[in-house]
Amino acid sequence: MEIHSFRLVAGKIVGYLLNPGHPKGRHKAILPNAIGFYQTRPEDLRQAIRSLIAEGRTEGFEANKLRMGRLEIGFIGALTGPPSDRIRSRRTWKAVIQYEGGWNLVTLKPLQE
Fold first, then answer.
1. Rounded CA gap, 51 and 33, in Å?
2. pLDDT of the residue at 85
3. Nearest of 7, 4, 6, 33 to residue 20 by alpha carbon
4. Is the per-residue pLDDT at 31 higher than 60?
5. Deepest in the core among 6, 8, 65, 68, taking most CB within 10 A?
6. Is residue 3 in some structural domain?
7. Overall number of domains in the chain
8. Is residue 70 helix, strand or coil?
9. CA separation for the pair 9, 56 (Å, rounded)
C-alpha cells in the first residue's frame, strides 16, 4: 500500500519510542536503542520508520481495520539502523498508522519471532 504522507510527531518519537524513562513506553526504547536509535537523533528513527512503511507489507496482518472508528493500517518489515551504524535488526517490526484528519504514526513495535 502506498501512503504518500503521514505525520511522525517529534514528541511521539523522542518522548515515547526512544525514551527509556517513559512510564508506559520505556520498554519500547530498548530495541531501537540497541540498533543505534537515540533521543539525541530522532530524525534517524523517523527516516527508518518512513522506509519501513514505504517498503513494508500489509497483507496477512489485519492490514486495514477500524479501531475506535478510525482506519488503521499495520506495516510489517525490517528496521535498519541509522546511516552511521547501518545495523539491521533481525526482528520483524510493525509500524501502525491511523487516519484521523491525516495519517499519523500510532506505534512501532517488534513482533515475536
1. 18
2. 64
3. 33
4. yes
5. 8
6. no
7. 1
8. strand
9. 20
Task: Give the Cβ contact number of residue 16 at 10 Å.
Answer: 17
**What pLDDT digit, counting tens, does each position of 70-80 carry?**
777 888 888 87
Rg, C-alpha atoms of the chain = 13
How many angstroms separate the CA atoms of 7 and 14, rounded? 14
Nearest-5° Cα angle at 66, 65 to 68: 145
Q: Distance between terminal CA atoms of the chain?
A: 24
Whether residue 5 lies inside any domain: the answer is no
As beta bridge partners, residue 94 has 76, 109
Considering the domain boundaries, does residue 2 fall inside one? no
Instruction: Give every CB contact of residue 38 below 8 A, 6+ residues apart in sequence.
Output: 18, 44
DSSP 82: P
Quote the cell numbers at residue 67.
479501531
Which candidate, 67, 57, 64, places its Cα nearest to that of 111? 57
pLDDT cut 90: percent of the chain above it: 0
Domain containing 42 equals 10-110
